[in-house]
Amino acid sequence: LTVLGLESSCDDTAAAVLRRGMDGRTEILSSVVRSQTNLHAAFGGVVPEIAARAHAEVLDYCVEEALSQARCAIPDLDAIAVTAGPGLIGGVVSGVMCAKGLAAATGLPLYGVNHLAGHALTPRLTDDVAYPYLMLLVSGGHCQFLLVKGPDAFSRLGGTIDDAPGEAFDKVARLLGLTQPGGPAVERTAKSGSADTFALPRPLLDRPGCDMSFSGLKTALLRARDTAVAQYGGLPEQVRADLCAGFQAAVVDVLAEKTRRALRDYLDLALAQPTLCVAGGVAANGAIRTKLEAVAAVAGAQFVAPPLALCTDNAAMIAFAAMEQMETRAPDGFDLAARPRWPLDTAQPAMLGSGK
Ligand code: ATP
Ligand code: FE
C-alpha cells in the first residue's frame, strides 16, 4: 500500500510518500517540507493571503520532489491523502484542489484528513503504541488532551481556553526582543535565568479538570517586564533571562499538573500498557519534555515523543492517518470540503460546506 500525502494548512507546504508492507510496517519513503517562514518574517506572523498563494505555487513542486525522492511514479500509488482542515482556509483549499486534481486525473481514491488527527496518530508511525493512548498536543495553534481510541475515534479531555503555549512562547519572545520562532529563543535564554525571581501565575490550577489558560500568564509577564524596564531604565540581560525562566517554569507547571489529571482519568481504563504521547512543536522544549516524562513515569505510563520533524507540520502524518483510516472508512468524493474549523471529536467524514 503506497500513499501520497499533502499538507498545506498553515505556513508549511508538504508532500510525502509512505509505504506499508505486508508485515504491517510503514516506511516513510519521502517527506518534503517547504517552509514559508521567510515570506512572513517581515509581518511578524503568518499572512493568510500570502500563505495561500505560496502553497498554490509550490504544491506541484513538492509532489514531484516527494515522488522523485521516493523513487515512485503516479502509477505506483494506491491513494491520495490531503489535509482538509482545520487551518487557514486559503491554504487548505490549495491542498484539497491539488489532491482532487490528482485523484481526478488518475482515478485514485481520495482521503480528506483532519490535520489534528495527523498529529495525534503520529506516535503509531514511529513507535509501537496501542490504542487507546493519551495524547497531549501542544503546538503554535493548539493545546489539548486527546484520548485516541482508534484512527477515527478521539475524545477531547480538555485543552486551552485561550492561547496555545507555542503562541505564548512566541509572544513572550517578541515582548523581550528575542528572535522568532520564540520557543527555542526563550528556552535558550531561560538557561541562564532563575525561575524564582518573578512570581508569575499558574492559571486554572485551582480549578478541577484538564482545561488550561495561557493568556493571563502572557499579560503578567508584560507587567513584570514593564516594571523592570521602569526600574532599570532598560532590560538587563539577567532580568531578561529571569523572565524567560519564570515564564517557562509556569508553562511547565501548568502542563505537568494538567497532564497528571488527564493521566488519572485515562489510567482508570486499567490498560496493560498505558501510554502518554506528546506531539506539536512545543514538545521540542527540553524542560517540558523532561517534566512530562517524569509525570508519566510516576503514573507508570510509557512516554512516547516522536522525533521533532514528525512533531511539527509535515505530510507523512497525513498519509499515515489516511492509511490508518482506510481500514474503517470509504474514500471521500469530489464534494470533499476544505474546513477552517474541524474539531476532532465530531464525526470524521467531511461534510459539505465549511463546518463549524
Ligand atoms: P499548529 O500545528 O497547531 O497548526 P504550528 O504549525 O504553528 O501550529 P508547530 O509547527 O507544531 O505549530 O510548532 C511551532 C510552535 O512551537 C511555535 O510557536 C514555536 O515557538 C514552538 N516551539 C518550537 N520549539 C520550541 C521550544 N524549544 N520551546 C517552546 N516552544 C517551542
Ligand atoms: Fe500542525
Compact summary:
With 356 residues, the chain is α/β, with parallel strands linked by helices.
> What distance lies between the first and last C-alpha atoms, to the nearest angstrom?
33 Å
Largest sheet: 5 strands, mixed
The percent range for strand residues is 15-25%
| Cα-based radius of gyration, to the nearest Å | 21 Å
What's the total number of strands? 10
Enzyme class: transferase
Main location: cytoplasm
EC number: 2.3.1.234
Keywords: Acyltransferase, Cytoplasm, Iron, Metal-binding, Transferase, tRNA processing
Protein described:
- The protein is α/β, with parallel strands linked by helices and 356 residues long.
- Helix content is 43%, strand content 19%.
- It has eleven helices and ten strands.
- It has helices at residues 37-40, 48-69, 89-106, 115-126, 165-175, 182-190, 215-232, 237-267, 286-299, 308-311, 316-326; strands at 2-7, 12-20, 26-35, 79-85, 110-114, 133-138, 143-150, 153-159, 275-279, 302-304.
- The protein has a five-stranded mixed β-sheet with strand order 3-2-1-4-5, sandwiched between helices. A five-stranded mixed β-sheet has the order 8-7-6-9-10, sandwiched between helices.
- A hairpin with a 4-residue loop joins strand 6 (133-138) and strand 7 (143-150).
- Helix 4 packs across helix 11, helix 6 (182-190) packs across helix 8 (237-267) and helix 7 (215-232) packs antiparallel against helix 8 (237-267).
- It is globular, with a radius of gyration of 21 Å.
- The model is unreliable at 347-356 (pLDDT under 50).
- The structure holds adenosine-5'-triphosphate and fe (iii) ion (FE).
- The site of fe (iii) ion has 4 residues, from helix 4.
- Substrate binds at residues 137-141, 170, 183, 187, 285.
- It comes from Roseobacter cerasinus.
- GO terms for molecular function: iron ion binding; tRNA N(6)-L-threonylcarbamoyladenine synthase activity.
